[in-house]
Amino acid sequence: MSLKIYCDRMSQPSRAILIFSKMNGLDFEEITIKIFEGQQHTPEYKEINPMSQVPTIVHGDFRLFESHAILIYLCSAFPQVASHWYPSDIHERAKVHSVLDWHHSNLRRGSVGVLTNLMLLPLRGAPLDTKATEEAEKTLEKSLSIIESFWLKDGPFLVGRSQPSIADLCLISEIMELQLLSERDHERILSPYKKVSKWIEDTKKATAPYFDEIHQDLLIAQKGFREQLENLGKTN
Ligand SMILES: N[C@@H](CCC(=O)N[C@@H](CS)C(=O)NCC(=O)O)C(=O)O
């Protein structure tokens, strides 16, 4: 059965799925849907994912969107997936689900809010919305602080695991998106969280060489975004 992954390497959940699939030697076709060019809104793609978002997978006749659900499905559908990605023990598995659920209503909410207010809207010429920016930063900083003091308290990876699970990939891909902020904002927001930095480095090593390969487009784009943000700062 063929596996197709519709994704954009600029999208955090897409990167989590690509790194996972490469790490586990899945045979798949990567189909790029460029979200900054609006390709998610074409009628052809809407047939595949009515939500018009990436990522989506098509496995044989089966279509699925939502990255957490996709990762859980891939762990269940492909026997070669190493067990640490999605533990079989029900309590260990439930803890992975717990951090995944927490991710969407906390870290992702804060991170997307900060990127929207400090990067996307300024680049579109919108005036800074101080209240929205402060709220997003508060959510993001609270989330980073909870990862540092709670989710990473029992081991090098989330929920006390000694090897990464699908949750580590999802949360770290989210945090990596913050590379698109100006260097000053990135440093200001991330530098207090030493355990978070070490966890990212450990995950990078555990998923080499795919982590760097899949993040390459983001880091290339970072240069352009940061230059534009710097020029805005000079003219404002
Ligand atoms: N909860 C979804 C989030 C999907 C999502 O927000 N995808 C973004 C890219 S990261 C997207 O497709 N944005 C384009 C749009 O909404 O038009 C998941 O985890 O898969």
Could you walk me through the main structural features you see in this protein, from its secondary elements to its overall organization?
This protein is of the alpha+beta class. The protein has two domains: 3-81, 3-Layer(aba) Sandwich (Glutaredoxin), CATH 3.40.30.10; 90-235, Glutathione S-transferase Yfyf (Class Pi), Chain A, domain 2. 60% of the residues lie in helices and 7% in strands. It is built from ten helices and four strands, in the order βαβαββαααααααα. It has helices spanning 12-23, 43-48, 67-77, 90-105, 107-123, 130-151, 166-176, 183-190, 194-206, 210-235; strands spanning 3-7, 29-32, 56-59, 62-65. Strands 2-1-3-4 form a four-stranded mixed beta sheet, covered by helices on one side. α1 links the parallel β1 (3-7) and β2 (29-32). α1 (12-23) crosses α7 (166-176) and α4 (90-105) packs parallel to α7 (166-176). The longest helix has 26 residues, at 210-235. The protein is globular, with a radius of gyration of 18 Å. It starts with a strand and ends with a helix. The structure holds glutathione. Glutathione is lined by residues 11-13, 35, 40, 52-55, 66-67.
